[in-house]
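Backbones bend. We report:
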Amino acid sequence: MQNSNSKEAEDLRIYQIIDANLDRAREGLRVLEDWARFGLGKDDYVTKLKNFRQILGKNHLEIYKQTRNYIEDQCKGLTHFEQFNRKTPEQVISSNASRVQEALRVIEEFSRLHNLELSKIASEIRYEIYTLEIDLLSLSKYKNSEEILKENDLYVITDPKENLLEIIESILIAGVKIIQHRFKTGTDKDHLQEAIQIRKLCKRHNALFIINDRVDIALASNADGIHLGQDDLQLKTARKLLGYSKIIGISANNEIDISNALKEGCDYIGIGPVFETATKKSKKPLGIEKIKTLTKDLNIPWFAIGGVTKNNISYLKSSGFIKFALVSQLMNSEDPKEDAIMILKELSHEN
């Protein structure tokens, strides 16, 4: 039978474990909270994380704190090489979410012997963090995609080519950061394999990979987003399927379609055709003045499309256009890399 002294010593060791893990959990929560606040600007997540910290702080009893130096921690200061391999905010989020989850599990187990209320609290918060980690990672991924959309003015749309992968790789090397892939002929199996290959190329060059129309292939290939026409799947349905980590763009050429796209939360709009184009022979060109009218109050990225070439970009820029989507100019180029470099240089010049 345990004597009172050994039982007291055991309790003190347990209190010390609870104290250390309450500190770990609150520290990890603070890292997640600050990323939600400063990295993502998401007040609702900041509030939730702050609340978790306050609850744990309220239950960080003095009896736990008083045991902090009861037994000297022989492992104090130990590090692991993986700590130095965190090179992105996403890795920091994952590692700190894991830190919180693990600390809460320890608290849950050991406080069950002395403090059932704290054990229950630790369990409830731990399960909340599992979902919250996924949310923060999704929001971070979306934030990165959103920044690429805002910062880059050239959007390239593919056409079927025998050497398509070679063309795409060459323009990515040139500095293009947004690729939209359109499927024409072939089986879904072929489409998916092609999409996966293009996705890998885009990831290697930190470029957005957007799939035209096919939500299923966008999901299966882990594309960064989808582009929808007016006759495609509704945006709100696509959002339910894709979640909030993916970019959704819309083609629009009139006030009603633009207004609807904005209400439903699209991330960017393709507007055109500006001029006559072989890829949209049935569509009447909108012209520069009409597009200027349609876009004068737009506060999300929009790309002029249709008949845009390296020869008229300068003229369009002088009319106030900033972002452009190209198809034939680069897909049919004898030297797509060089043409892409020239266009990017043109776009980088001030008006």
